[in-house]
Design brief:
Blueprint: E1 13-14, E2 23-25, E3 29-36, E4 43-50, H1 52-71, H2 73-90, H3 92-103, H4 107-132, E5 135-137, E6 147-155, E7 158-162, H5 176-181, E8 185-189, H6 197-207, E9 215-217, H7 222-229, E10 234-238, H8 241-253, E11 258-261, E12 266-270, H9 276-288, E13 298-304, H10 305-320, H11 341-356, E14 360-363, E15 367-368, E16 375-376, E17 379-382, H12 389-392, E18 399-405, H13 408-416, E19 420-421, E20 423-427, H14 431-439, E21 445-448, E22 465-466, E23 469-470, H15 477-480, E24 483-491, H16 506-521
Parallel strand pairs: 1-4, 2-9, 7-8, 7-10, 8-9, 10-11, 12-13, 12-20, 13-18, 17-18, 20-21
Antiparallel strand pairs: 3-4, 5-6, 6-24, 11-23, 14-17, 15-16, 19-22
Helix pairs in contact: 1-7, 2-4, 3-4, 9-10
Bound molecules: NADPH dihydro-nicotinamide-adenine-dinucleotide phosphate.
């Protein structure tokens, strides 16, 4: 990850309508929404809230542009994303500054977001065709002997992507990349809390040669998002489980398929033989990076009894050393602001609930103010249990509740005692045992001696079990979901009549029954 210095001036960005660019913002806005920097409280821009008519107009333009975009093929679409990579690198400071200004995150957290976006462009530019080329199906049934059977993928047409506020580039635009590479047009609804980065995306895609209308930016709030769902052929949503339910209900009205990446409560299981230095560094980082506002954050830690005291002492020392405040330059701070104002109350409520039920605060535990910004201190909680919200509900802040467990069996039981199932991690020097335990964890991904980094393995599906999601991003499903499948079957040796066709006769039926018995008796 590169960490170049970025200017500290706040950027004032206003959304523009009716862009002639490859990416277009809608027109017909009814009101404007202001955007603030959570690290300073300053206003950094404003956007227009598009109404249902404006969203429909954007959808019409996107549908009109889609056949041409689909027709140019994978190579030409890949070239657009390769040009976008260069544009992003040339404009890295503007991107980083905009992300930092609207989220309040650190330079390094923004840098990681940019690095992941670049990887995403490169991956899909190179691999989209491989996933979507025609597949020859081996038709072994005697009933289809002599037929050539093919599965092919056709873009759904118009994909709607709804993004959250924690990663305004990666969790919004990176889900558009495979949709676009598949030959779809896309409408993107960024979070009203952090919508400004997407205007740089629009500029980037225009400069990179994306045809006008193919990417529409639908700025606004939840109502704009709901209107968008009514107008698209597929919905990709990232955000809370509660809103995910609403999105799926809305999509069901038109039987529009949807993929949902929702909340998590990722457990970290630390076994007695773990490398303690790595485990404690990782616990501090993966629970507090991006201010703890990562859907795949470490949200709860289970430590085996023999190493519990040592683990706690080491991790406390590391968390106490973390610096918090507005980013001024690379390396200036580790834990950024709380991006979304209501989130501060949720974090506070989880800590208060834990303390009321007997938990102890080892460090942190309260709001912090740096300049005019909103922060929550990096916090460690102990003496926690599953009666407390901090162990069962998504906190989405810089908190680390740590629970002592008797053994690995108890850790697995507690890890699985949860309505969420996004990701998990196991920490041990015994990789084989770690893998065995990982296979018993009810989550879409479980890492051994790591957390979060599977997100950058774009060939591997990333999605949640239980209430953490429906469907997945990345891997083959990450692009095929944006397509309709079509089966082609070509009879290369057509006869006048198949034996099972009319008219029926006793002799032919008996013959077919005997043939069926012959084939299936031999099985197994
Ligand atoms: P939401 O799930 O409410 O918002 C996500 C996106 O959905 C935003 O663009 C939002 O628009 C939009 N939206 C809201 N209502 C609707 C609707 N009815 N139809 C269509 N789109 C809609 O997340 P919040 O911002 O409210 O965060 C709440 C919680 O979500 C957090 O506490 C955290 O636990 C979790 N979260 C999870 C994330 C993840 O990566 N999985 C990311 C962010 C939050 P708008 O912002 O304009 O309201």
């Amino acid at each position: 990850m590169s960490t170049e210095t970025v200017e500290q001036q706040p950027v004032e960005i206003e959304s523009s309508n009716g862009s002639e660019a490859g990416a277009s913002a809608g027109s017909g806005a009814v009101e404007s929404i202001s955007v603030e920097n959570p690290a300073t409280g300053e206003s950094v821009g404003s956007i227009e809230k598009l109404d249902a008519d404006a969203v429909r107009a954007l959808a019409d333009a996107a549908r009109a542009a889609q056949p041409g975009w689909s027709a140019i093929g994978f190579r030409a679409r890949g070239a657009v994303f390769n040009r976008a990579r260069r544009w992003l690198l040339d404009n890295r400071e503007r991107f980083a500054r905009t992300i930092i200004d609207e989220t309040g995150k650190t330079n390094e957290d923004a840098g990681l977001e940019l690095a992941v976006a670049l990887e995403s462009f490169a991956y899909w530019a190179k691999h989209a065709e491989k996933y979507l080329r025609d597949e020859r199906i081996s038709a072994r049934s005697p009933m289809v002997l002599g037929r050539k059977v093919i599965t092919r993928y056709e873009p759904v047409g118009l994909v709607g992507v709804i993004g959250p506020w924690n990663y305004p580039l990666v969790n919004a635009f990176c889900d558009c990349v495979p949709a676009l590479m598949a030959g779809n047009s896309v409408l993107l609804k960024p979070s009203e809390v952090t919508p400004l980065t997407i205007f740089l995306v629009a500029e980037m895609m225009e400069a990179s040669g994306l045809p006008k209308g193919v990417l529409g930016i639908a700025t606004g709030d939840g109502e704009t998002g709901a209107a968008m769902i009514d107008n698209v052929d597929y919905v990709m949503f990232t955000g809370s489980t509660a809103t995910g339910r609403k999105v799926m209900e809305r999509a069901a009205r038109n039987l529009t398929p949807a993929s949902l990446e929702l909340g998590g409560k990722d457990p970290m299981i630390v076994l007695a033989d773990a490398n303690l230095e790595r485990a404690t560094n990782a616990a501090a980082y993966f629970s507090m990076n991006n201010g703890g506002q990562v859907c795949i954050s470490v949200e709860r830690v289970y430590v085996e009894e023999p190493i519990y005291d040592e683990f706690l002492a080491k991790v406390t020392e590391k968390v106490k050393a973390l610096r918090q405040g507005p980013d001024s330059s690379p390396g200036s701070t580790e834990v950024g602001a709380v991006t979304f104002a209501p989130q501060l109350s949720i974090i506070e409520a989880h800590v208060a609930d834990a303390v009321a039920k007997g938990a102890k605060i080892v460090t942190g535990g309260k709001r912090a103010e740096h300049g005019g910004g909103r922060y929550f201190e990096p916090t460690i909680l102990v003496d926690v249990d599953h009666s407390m919200d901090c162990m069962t509900e998504e906190t989405f802040g810089p908190t680390m509740p740590i629970m002592k467990v008797r053994d690995a069996e108890q850790a697995i039981e507690l890890a699985n005692d949860c309505k969420y199932g996004l990701q998990a991690s196991v920490w041990t020097r015994d990789n084989a045992r770690g893998e065995q335990i990982a296979r018993r964890i009810e989550a879409g991904a479980c890492l051994v001696n790591d957390a979060q980094i599977n997100y950058a393995a774009f060939g591997a599906p990333m999605g949640g079990w239980k209430t953490s999601g429906v469907g997945s991003r990345h891997g083959s499903n990450g692009i095929r979901k944006y397509c309709k499948t079509q089966t082609l079957s070509v009879n290369r040796m057509p006869t006048k009549r198949e034996p099972y066709m009319f008219p029926y006769s006793k002799r032919t039926t008996n013959l077919l029954n005997r043939a069926t018995k012959f084939v299936h008796r031999r099985a197994g």
